[in-house]
Amino acid sequence: MTKVTLIVGANSMSSRLNGLVEYTQKVLFDYKIQTQVIQVHMLPHQALLTADVMDSTLQSYNEQLAASDGVLVFTPIFKGSYSGILKTYLDVLPQKALADKVVYALGLGGSQHHLLALQYALEPVLKELGTEELLQSTYVVQDQVAKDDINGFVVSDVVKQRINNQLTQFYNRIVSKQPKEETRWEKIV
């Protein structure tokens, strides 16, 4: 079964960024992709801040990431860059943790002014971690994800369409990397 890890750099579960996480999980579920979510703010703080790569919890998550076919990275955009919370986790990943993985980043910011933050701040780090299959990132303005007391989060249709387009490419790239059964021809005499 295809597995994808979602790394979330939000500072709380109530962050609107989790609306994007929930939506992408639903789409990936429709593609029959198994997902696991790493909420970085819930990882051991001391281990993250001291970059303790020997911490058993961090090692466990890193092993799950290694077993994934693809990775989605979610971050709020603060002061023109991705979150420091996300950075603490990226710093404890093995040097080429994203090699042979399809990667797609999504960011949520307060205005269009930080539209290029993902391309200039986050994508170089993801490439340094070994990904060669980096899809074009999706930047979303926080007004396009509303909090709803009944349904949790409501993502605008425009954003859903943009995410759907990228997730279709994401899925197709993952599937194309899967080993195919080799057809064997036998000589009939």
The total of helices stands at 6
Q: What value does the Rg take, in angstroms?
A: 18 Å
Order of helices and strands: EHEHHEEHEHEEEEH
Low-confidence stretches: none
- Please summarize the sheet with the most strands: 7 strands, mixed
Q: Examine the secondary-structure arrangement and name the CATH architecture.
A: 3-Layer(aba) Sandwich
- According to CATH, what is the class? Alpha Beta
Tertiary shape: globular
Work out the strand percent: 15-25%
And the CATH topology?
A: Rossmann fold
Could you report the average pLDDT, rounded to the nearest whole number? 91
Compute the separation of the termini in Å: 39 Å
The CATH homologous superfamily: Flavodoxin domain
What is the structural class? alpha/beta
- Number of domains as seen in the coordinates: 1
The helix content is 25-40%
Number of strands: 9
InterPro entries: Flavoprotein-like_sf, FMN_Rdtase-like_dom, NAD(P)H-dep_FMN_reductase
Domain NADPH-dependent FMN reductase-like: 2-141
Protein name: FMN reductase
GO molecular function, one term: oxidoreductase activity
